Structure formats: C-alpha cells, structure tokens
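Support request, please re-run this one:
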Amino acid sequence: MALISETSDDVSNGSDPNKNPEDLHKKPQEEEEENQNEKPKEEEQVENLAPIRRRHIPLILIERTVALIRICHYPRLSLLSRTFLNVISSEHLFVTRSLLGLTEPVLYALITLPPFTAPSWFILHRSNMSLRLSRISSLPPMSPGCTAVTIGHKIYVMGGRNGLNQPVNTVIVIDCRFHKWENLQSMKRERCFAASGVIDGKIYVVGGRKKRYEDWVEVFDVENGVWETVPGLCCYLASSSGVFPIHVVLDNKIYILDGQHCLAYDPRLRRWDNWGPESPQRHYWYTCSCVVDDLLYTIVPQWYLAGSLIVVYDPRDMVWRPVKGVDHLPSFFYVESKMSSFGGKLVLLGWHESQNSCGHDSEKIVVCVEVALGRSEDGDIWGKVESTSPVHSSFRWPSIDISRTVTV
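Re-run finished. Output below.
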C-alpha cells in the first residue's frame, strides 16, 4: 500500500513512474544537459525518414468527377493542373457525359458588331449566377449572310458572301466541345441568305441564289461528306432572288418566310407547298420565331394581337393560339431579335438603347429573356418569364444574325 501511495504522489508531482530511482535524484541542470545531447539523435532520425510520396489521382476518377460538373465551369477547372486540362480536352470525357445522360444545351449566337463587318460567334453562359454573352476567340469570323444548322455537338456553317460582296460556297463545321473548326467539301453552288435544315440526318440548303430548276436545292450527306444537287420544281411564288433569312424545320419540312408568302419544301416527296398572306400558316408568322416540340412559336406586335405577345402554331390543325401567361416583353423584340429552343423553353435575344443624359453615345444593351413553357390539361400552352438579363453591351449597333442551341 505504501508503494502505491508513493507512486501516486510522484505522478501527481509531475514525476515519471517509469524512471529509474537514480533518475529521480538527478538535478534539473543534469537533465537539461542530457536532453540537449539527445536532440541531435532525434533530428538525425527525422532526416533519415523516407520522403512522403504524392499520390496521383487516377485519370478515370478525375474524368468521372468532371463529367458530373456543368460545362460552364470547365474553363476554370482546366486551370487547376495539366491533368485536368487534358481530361477536359479529351473526347472521351464527352462520351462519358453522353453515356451518363449528362449532356446539356448550350446557346450560340452569331453577332455582327460594327465597324467589324464579319459576324462572330458568342456563347451564352452563366457567370456567378448571371447570364453573359462571351465571344469565342478561337473561332474565325464568319461570312455575312451565311446559314447554319446544328447536329449534336456540331454547328455546320454554309455560304454567305466575301469582302467583295460575292456569294461563296464554303462550308465549315464547328466542334462545340472544344471550339475547333475545319473546312468541309464546298457546296456545288455559291449561296447567300439561303434557308437550311436537317431532315433524316441530312442537311438541305434551299435558295440563296436566283431560281433555277437544276440547282436551287442541295443536300449534304453528313456521313459521307458529299454534296449533291436536288433537281426539282422551284416554287413559283418564291422570290426570284432566293433570299430566305427566316426559316424553320417543322413537320419534317423546311418552312420559309418569304415576304407575304409562306413556303414549305418537303425533301422526302421533293414537293413544294405555298400559302398566301391570309393563310393560317402566314397570318401571324413574324421574324422572331423558332420551333419547340414541333410547334412554331413567334412574337407579334401587341397592336396586331391584343392581349398576347407570343403565339404558337400547330401544323396538325393549322391553327395559331396565344401563349397564355406572357403579357409583357421588352418592346425591342418586335424589331430585331432572335428566338431559340433551349432545353424545351424559349430563349430570346434582342437589344435596346440605354438612356444617356450626358449627351454621349448611349450603350446598346443585348438582353436575354428565358420563357418556360407548359401545357395545361385542356391543351393550352402557358409561358412564364423566368429571367430577363442584360448579357452584352457595346457602343455600336449589334446585329443578331443567328441563334442556335447545341447539345454538348
């Protein structure tokens, strides 16, 4: 018992019960000298330790992780390391995203900003929860008057005019995963402001030149990379110049807005349909339009259709109906704007001039409006404005030439 009591006292006084009895009677100075003599041995042991190895993260783990992240964050992720850059720049990453069902729509706009005469591609992306249009510097300027279609993650750009105001037959394809481009086989004929569309996996180009029986329509076999002219009758009501900047693909036909008439080319039957200004097809169709789920949406001036600004056309019953719930949109959309299908909803791009009280040049603000769509039980189409955001500004008059959505 006495031993236990003494040991307890020693411990309580800060002594070490494991010390030898002789050590307990050493003076503090002697202990300090011994400790100083032991320090080099401890440092020597630390120096002899094997270096800590950096563990490399397997590429497949990085790829699976990056695949889950939205594409708008890829530019910043690529700055983390060369490994991340290589993963983001690999085609295999996008194959993985596709297999996981993680593809997403991305909006591209072809915009002309004077005094530069050649239009350039811009991409709409979110930055800190706000929408912005950013120019894609890796893509060259396009030819004014070109036409464009999208297939998957690619944009095909065809025709236009050169600096001498002469139509061209050039064709390029843009890979929107990496913003790389290459030339494809040229069209058989030069075309400017032609109509275009994708039907059954093939690209059709209509007009863009004077009406002629043998070459007014061309078709591009995407798989084989070959252009062929499609002989057939020209629509007698079509403009002789063949300038068709407003067109959509609807019901497997290329619908063309041509002045007071509406034309439709059916590639499967190689047949033309045409309707006059009083027809249901032409009655409400205006320049700002697009197709969502095989329905044609367009904006009409408020004075023309009281109570609604957006209307929708169903080709099955050939009837226009108002989109309910959308009563107020910026006035600039009546003049110069573009509408696109974006993940099942409408995205509108237009611009207005900001007010400037200082007498200086006022800014031209490009604005993006997102409209969600839905259908009620009774069949009515409803819309809801989700956001209205300024996405670009300049002191020049912008021209929004083309707006297309790509799946990446």
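The chain has a mean pLDDT of 83. Residues 28-47 form the longest helix (20 residues).
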